[in-house]
Amino acid sequence: MGHIICIASLKGGVGKTTTAVNLSAAFASGGEKTLLIDCDPQGSATTGVGFNKQKLTKTLYDALSGKVLIEDTVLDTHLEHLKAIPVHSEFFRAEMELMSKPEKENILRNLLTRFKDHYDHIIIDTPPSLSLVSINAMTAADFLLIPLQCEFLAYESLIQLLQFVRLIKKKLNPDLRLAGILLTMYDMGEKTSRQIAKNARSHLKNAVFRTVIPRSVQLREASSVGRPILLLDPESVGAQSYFKLAEEIMARRAKDENHKKDSYLSFPGH
């Protein structure tokens, strides 16, 4: 049975969607059956894997509103083992429409239940907000991955998110665990980046992935042309970082499944 990983941050521009797209691609390139779900009304993950939002006919919004089966929204991408469920501009209406539905926090989880047998990984990209869509994503997920930008102001939003997630865990999804906190936009030559990385590892210990994602022009360019970085420049530092992240997550998963130790983590301060 596959695992659902929700990628979340309360701060925009931290590499959340970049991570969703490129981690999904890294899994898929290794032969893992992967589904990327775009839950962000901006639709950046949708364009990040090459879809023209204006030409989409069936999207996540249609599945959440009950107009189509969720299976009918799944599209092929440029990678053989990577599928995606896209969104386009009307997805902003999902928030309002979900409010009036029974079990409104569990709608996405109910839709994805039967999908878990068909994929090794389901990656959900979320909006940078504490919205009902975000709650649905966290309630549906097995694990949460939190990008932490290497700047001092990022800690405040991380603390707020962790407080919110503990509430989700208590009220809606007691099985939700932390996949890890991912340092993003790291610049080895920048004192601030080094200090943030040091502080994060000191205070958050093993919750922080060993892998870090560098500040990278290639990663930005890949997003702008609608391709994962590994399809454009697989030898680049950015691409290699996401390969390493995928390997690190897979290693934790293997240890967890073999019961060698509890390789996934509780939320800091829990």
Automatic annotation (TrEMBL):
<dbReference type="Pfam" id="PF13614">
    <property type="entry name" value="AAA_31"/>
</dbReference>
<protein>
    <submittedName>
        <fullName>Chromosome partitioning protein</fullName>
    </submittedName>
</protein>
<dbReference type="InterPro" id="IPR050678">
    <property type="entry name" value="DNA_Partitioning_ATPase"/>
</dbReference>
<dbReference type="InterPro" id="IPR027417">
    <property type="entry name" value="P-loop_NTPase"/>
</dbReference>
<feature type="domain" description="AAA">
    <location>
        <begin position="3"/>
        <end position="177"/>
    </location>
</feature>
<dbReference type="InterPro" id="IPR025669">
    <property type="entry name" value="AAA_dom"/>
</dbReference>
